[in-house]
């Protein structure tokens, strides 16, 4: 078992990692921070910070799966948005080409008569 853990310390310069044992209060704050970040990402949360502190494997697996699914959905929406933009540009281009062809056909009919 690992007796040492890495705690994250925030100071004015940024993030600094500190090796050593964490106090119980720091562990509780980190667990609540994980849950709050997951909620901000839009994940469905079914566990409490106590589940993380007690290392409940099923609940941690559910949290991990929820974060993974949220990330996958976000990436797929991003790709769909990009593809939609490309399709809209293509449709606009084809519409412009169709309009040009119609104008040219009308011009040729007038010229022929």
Annotate the secondary structure layout.
Elements: E1 5-11, E2 14-20, H1 24-41, H2 49-53, H3 57-112
Antiparallel strand pairs: 1-2
Describe the structure.
The chain has 113 residues and is an alpha+beta fold. It has one domain (24-112). Helix content is 70%, strand content 12%. It is built from 3 helices and 2 strands. The chain has helices at 24-41, 49-53, 57-112, and strands spanning 5-11, 14-20. It has a two-stranded antiparallel sheet. It is rod-shaped. The relative contact order is 0.07.
Provide tags for this entry.
two-stranded antiparallel ribbon; 3 helices
**Poorly predicted regions:** 1-6
Number of domains: 1
User: Strand order, biggest sheet?
Assistant: 1-2
Structural class category? alpha+beta
Order of H and E elements:
EEHHH
Calculate the mean pLDDT score and round it: 75
Cα-atom radius of gyration:
28 Å
Q: Count the strands? A: 2
Largest sheet: 2 strands, antiparallel
Beta-strand residue percentage:
5-15%
Percent of residues in helices comes to 55-70%
Tally of individual helices: 3
Shape: rod-shaped
| First-last Cα distance | 93 Å
What is the structure about, briefly put?
This protein is an alpha+beta fold. It contains three helices and two strands. A hairpin with a 2-residue loop joins strand 1 (5-11) and strand 2 (14-20).
